[in-house]
Amino acid sequence: MFRGFYTVASGMVAQQRRTELLTNNMANANTPGFKADQSVVRSFPDMLLSRIGSTNIPVQKNLNLKTAKQVGAVNTGVYLQETIPQFIQGQIRETELTTDLALVDGAMPADPATGVAGAIFFRLENGEGQELYTRNGNLTLDADGYLVNPQGLYVLSETGERIQLQNDNFSVTPDGRIMQEDGEVARIGISFANNPELLLKQDNGLFSTGENGNLPSAYGEEGVTFSMQQGFLEGSTVDPSKTMTELLTAYRAFEANQKILQAYDRSMEKAVNEVGRVN
User: Fold this and answer.
1) Are 228 and 247 part of one and the same domain?
2) Which domain holds residue 94?
3) Partners of 121 in the beta sheet?
4) pTM recorded for the entire structure
């Protein structure tokens, strides 16, 4: 009976976390470059139950032989094992703003060990000098003329330097070169992740490598092709209708587990108050 409580409770916790994940996806349906999270739910190892008994052997000493008959397997619950961002190309939409940039994937070689396709990102730098990565090309110029993302993180060039411009009157070539009246200013830094599933997801659509060093440059990377479009933004990979359906499914699963938990509770109450009563 108590094992049933634990099994049902684990299912409720897993569905609650899945609901939170899907809600976050829905909230970022219009966030440029956002990669929707996918959940992986797994079950705990099954337990094999056996019924212990005994058999009397009619011999002179009347032997009693212990026996064990298999009853079957029982599941011990589920858990949300991991969440994996969906690293696919989002829809490209036009904004006509010179500071908006969209990365358009070309050929992305797959990791030979895992079969996961690689991914490219804009290079950013936070206030502590750490490199971060994003697909959100909704950029702007700060008060000092540096190219920054919506959170104020500096956009880095191919050589790892901050990009400072005279004004917002500039153009970006498909291969990432920023051009102004005096010629080329810098080339926007783009990094390549051989296995993007190893990246650590942070707030505001940012990714980091943790303590594994910085990602290599995507320029010149063998087999990697891409282009950059100015005046466009990459949309999120969230499918609102599918996400709403999955949210409803997760809610119904949570509700079903809740009903089972209530049934267990009533059974325990009856066992304590009625079955165990001494007349």
Assistant:
1) no
2) 87-234
3) 191
4) 0.79
